[in-house]
Amino acid sequence: MYVCLCKGVSDHKIREVVQQGARSFREVREQTGCATQCGKCACMAKTITREAVTRE
Ligand code: FES
Question: 2-55: what fold?
Fold first, then answer.
């Protein structure tokens, strides 16, 4: 499922960058571009990041 339509970032992509070492939403944003345009996806993307980091 796409989380960020502006940058074409999926929930899968967010989990992938967390698996590869990202530990905060700031890092996910830097690595994917997620939430760098309109920002509407930020809340959902933060939630997915938090869940993924907790699972690591
Ligand atoms: Fe993510 Fe617009 S949907 S920046």
Answer: Arc Repressor Mutant, subunit A (1.10.10)
Residue 25 in tokens = 């939403």
Task: Output the CA torsion sign for 53, 4, 30, 21.
Answer: positive
Q: Which residues pair with 4 in a beta bridge?
A: 9
Average pLDDT, whole number, for the chain?
98
Average pLDDT of the residues in 8-19 = 98
| Any atom of ligand 1 within 6 Å of the Cβ of 4 | yes
| Ligand 1 atom nearest residue 37's Cα | 4
- What is the complex's ipTM, to 2 decimals? 0.98
Q: Are 55 and 11 in contact (CB under 8 A)?
A: no
